[in-house]
Specification:
Elements lengths: L4 E6 L2 E6 L4 H8 L1 H8 L3 E5 L16 E6 L10
């Protein structure tokens, strides 16, 4: 019997999502503010190895993601 949901991990937390869900959809469900930051380029998403991932790819069961806001502000660069 196939399950309609798959387990993934987001920032160290297990989450069940519908099969075929994307990281964008997961974030919209779990943390809309962080989803907006990622979409605007003020946050970055990586996999368990620290490699950048596309937010619009379908998730695989057991995938591990870390999504973090950028430490860079929009201010002037250091001299």
């Amino acid at each position: 019997m196939l399950s309609d949901t798959i387990p993934v991990f987001l920032n160290g937390r297990p989450v069940s999502v519908p099969a075929g869900c994307t990281l964008e959809q997961l974030l919209a469900q779990e943390d809309p503010a962080l989803a907006a930051e990622l979409q605007a380029g003020r946050a970055a998403a990586t996999d368990a190895r620290g490699i950048a991932v596309a937010a619009d790819e379908p998730l695989l069961a057991g995938a591990i993601f870390r999504v973090m806001r950028s430490a860079r502000s929009g201010g002037a660069p250091d001299a």
